[in-house]
Structure formats: C-alpha cells, structure tokens
Amino acid sequence: MNNKIKFPVGTPAQWTTSDDVCIPDAHLRNWLLDTGSLTERLQSHCRQFELRLLGQRQMEPELEELQRLEVRNTEGAHDWQVREVVLFGDGKPWVYARSVLPNTLCQTDLVDLGDKPLGQIIFNDPRFKRSPFEVCMLSNMLSFKRKLNVQDDAKLWGRRSIFQYLQFNMMVAEIFLPDAPAYKTMTEMRKNGNC
Question: Residue 127 — pLDDT band, cuts 50, 70, 90?
C-alpha cells in the first residue's frame, strides 16, 4: 500500500442493517458481525501487526455520519475529530478504519492515540456499549478504491457501529481490504474455479 494516501479518505457507502443484507459467505459474515475486538482477531491471524495512522484532526464529519450519530444542529466541526487508519497483517493492508470521535473524548479518555489501536481502549473498558452493526458492500466506488490503491474489480465489505460512552456517541467504520482474512474462503473458491 502506498504511503501517499491523502487524509481524509471518507467512507462513500450506503449502510444498511445487517438483517437486510445477503452476505454471500458464512466466513465473511462471521468477520462482519463479530462483536469482539477486530484488532485482537487480526493480530491472531498474523505474526506482525501494524497500525498506520493516515490522519486525525478536528473536522466536521460527513452529513450522513452526523445524522447517524443523531447530532444536534448546534454541534459543528469543533465538536468532532475524524481518525483514519489502515491495519496491516504481515505487511499486507487488511482493514481501512474511519472513526468519528467526540472532541471532548479526544482531549481526555482518548488523548494521544497516535498509532495505538482504538479497539485496545474501547474493548477493555465496559463503559463502551456497541450498537448493532450496519454493513455495506462496495463494488462500484472507484474513486474510493483508488484513494486506497485497491484494484477496481474488488468487491469490498465493511461494517460500522456506534459506541456509546457516558453521554457521548462515537462511530467506528471498518472496510475489509482485498487481502483481509475475512475473504479467505471466497478467495479459495475463486482459486479453485468455484466462483
């Protein structure tokens, strides 16, 4: 993966509840709907795990993200930080993640995240409560894929959820990139000519 990815990338997807989507593979479905720590699961599938921070800064999230977060009109860019990272396993880009975080939390409980996985914090603190997943499938989002240097013909799946912490809501979206272990059985089927 090229180091020249321009922040912010964004997530140009139409998200829907997991009950309303036909996920074509049980293995992929398990990855998309697993409520445990994605970071820990990825770490268990590789010898070397790396988080590469694309960027984090105070900015206004996308309108659709604000609506999903149920943000009041009085809140603006100064209330939020957007953080984007790529998670690597054994040198291969596996997951692109975008988080929309309340600025207040970034100055207190989530201060100085840097290249530390957000999941290490939120899954070790029972005060963070996760909402049910929404999922998406990206097939024709060429500009998004080009920003991440992904092959044009690759179908990518993603998930997102809202985490509630005290009076705050924050959003975490994760897009599984082509080399991710989530696609393992689908990749094997294609190699064997079954797909």
Answer: confident
